[in-house]
Each structure stands twice: as structure tokens, then as C-alpha cells.
Specification:
- Belongs to the Lgt family.
- It is an enzyme of class 2 (transferase).
- Its EC number is 2.4.99.-.
- It is a single chain.
- This protein is mainly alpha-helical.
- It has one domain.
- 65% of the residues lie in helices and 7% in strands.
- α5 packs antiparallel against α6, α6 packs antiparallel against α7 and α7 runs antiparallel to α8.
- It is globular and about 50 Å long.
Amino acid sequence: MIQGFPQFLELARETGYTFLDYFNDAGLVYYGGFIGAVLFVLMTAKLVGAPVWSVLDTILPSIPLMHAFGRVGCFTAGCCYGIPSDWGFYFDASPIAPHGVRLLPVQLIESACLLVLFFLMYHYGKQKRLPGKMLAFYLIGYGVIRFILEFFRYDAFRGIYGVFSVSQWVSLALIVLGLFFWFWRRAAKKETVAG
């Protein structure tokens, strides 16, 4: 919604397009929902006095699993499609994708990657670890997946700034944040052991 806001303002001025219309038509981005959900969980955990890192660690492994099913939905809707490819699918029934062109099923590739991430996080979640490491694991894992797969996306409305898409910039920021949490939590453990 943020990257398309200038177009919304122009449409609103020219046609009377409302914010509710824009919200329904915008094609919301996963990263916005994820960031909003994490902030909501953090706020809620603080309000009820629950241990924030433990709450996040408990919830996070389910995120890539649910996201994997969501990407299958993207495939059936014909959105979030990939580049033209001989190994692709026709999305001629989709009002979004180009017709008459075989497009790489990036949605299914991402879904498979997300399932692998889910199983890795599930396995890692059974091990003893510092609270907060699961968030770092997810941010790094999904950030890498999304950054790479964005090179194979072909949908026009992703927003490109410089050499990368908006989602690639967000991915890079989340990878850096994940690395920070990973090493920050490791440093916290060393301090605890030393103290």
C-alpha cells in the first residue's frame, strides 16, 4: 500500500477512488503483514506480562508453514508469478498475469522453500537455545529465500528502487536484523555464563 500510495492519490483526485477501494484492491504485501503481526505480538505480550521472546519463539515456526499454503493460493490466483520460462505454466484464467505466456511458478518454488524452512525451524525449536534465536533464524532464512526468488519474479507492481525490488531491500534489512539478533543473543549468553 505504501509503494502504490502516489497512484492512489492520483486516482482519488481524478475518479473519486476511496481509501477503502484502494485497501481492497492494493494487493497487500506479505512483509507488511508479517512486520505488523510481530509488532502486535510484541505489544500484546508486553501488555499481558508474557515473556516476549518465548511467545515469539513459540509462534514463529508456524509462520513459514502458513505462508507456504498462502503461496499455493497465489499460484491458483495467478498472482506473484515468475519470469517467462519453458518450465512455466499458463495463467490465462488470471486477470492479473500476462496471457499466452508460460511463467515460472515462483509461487510453488517459494512454497517448497518455506516448507523446508518450517521443518528446519521445527527441528531447531526442539533444541535448547536462548529465547529470541528463533526470530533470528526466521528473519535470516526467509530473508535469503525472498531476496533470491525476487530475481525470478515478473509481476510489474513490485516497485524497483535502484537495482533491487522493494521486497529485496526489506529482505536485506531483515537479514541484517536477524544477524543482529543472532549475535546479540549469543553475546547475552556469554555474559550470563561469565557472570
